[in-house]
Amino acid sequence: MSTSDCLFCKIVSGEVPAQIVRESERVVAFRDINPQAPTHVLVIPREHHVNVAALAGADAALLGEVLAEAHRVAVDEGVADSGYRVVFNTGPGAGQTVFHVHAHVLGGRGLNWPPG
């Protein structure tokens, strides 16, 4: 998939609308269109990387920024103290459907273990 075909690259460029909740120079966070919890925000790098493994191999500092922004989302959403989950689905077998790395920040309800 080229970046011109990537839904999340189109959100980053403003071509596709999204409900942005936070953004920085290198990271964007927006509400999931199919929320699985009262708080369900996706945190993505502006730069295209297919999945978290690719991002970790290419730019560990950017991966750190994505995770730091995920925590800021949890604070802003009021779920940092009660608990939240950060999930990266990597590959189709794990449920990844958009092949631009994204962290799901989930909170606001009990999150059972194991997930799934």
TrEMBL record:
All residue ranges annotated as the HIT domain in the record: 7-116
Listed PANTHER family: HISTIDINE TRIAD HIT PROTEIN
Superkingdom of the source species: Bacteria
Matching InterPro entries: Histidine_triad_HIT (IPR001310), HIT-like (IPR011146), HIT-like_sf (IPR036265)
Residue span of motif Histidine triad motif: 100-104
MF (Gene Ontology): catalytic activity
Protein name: Histidine triad (HIT) family protein
PROSITE patterns: HIT_2 (PS51084)
Active-site feature positions: H102
Short name of any one Pfam family annotated for the protein: HIT
